[in-house]
Amino acid sequence: MTISVVIDTNVFVSGLRSEGGASRAVLRAALQGEVEPLFGNALWLEYRDLLARPVWSDITTPQERDQVLAALAKRGRWVTIYFGWRPNLPDEADNHLIELAIAGGASAIITHNLRDLGRGELRFGRLAILTPAQFLEVKR
Prior knowledge:
This protein is an alpha/beta fold. It has seven helices and five strands, in the order E-H-H-E-H-H-E-H-E-H-E-H.
């Protein structure tokens, strides 16, 4: 059974920029169907907005960036969020990750931002907040 996860934008970008490492391994696992990434409107728009920044123009073409998103979309599941869990996190901009994970039944949010995502007022017992390295260790 494939586990569902939310891949935070910081892990997505790290995975694309690095030649190796835990973030790249998480992204590879998603692209190979080993985990099911969940997407919602806010997260998908973050992915697209980040890939549209000029820094990517030096190393990839728009078509290559679209191909990465298409491959990720093919392996993932789109989730509609019907209920907001707000206010919850210190950084309001991160709440959509929790809402996506809960709505989609994710096992984990994979992020480099443990400090903010782990400090929510609400606790969701079955949802783990993990770094890419922690997730890979648990996944084994």
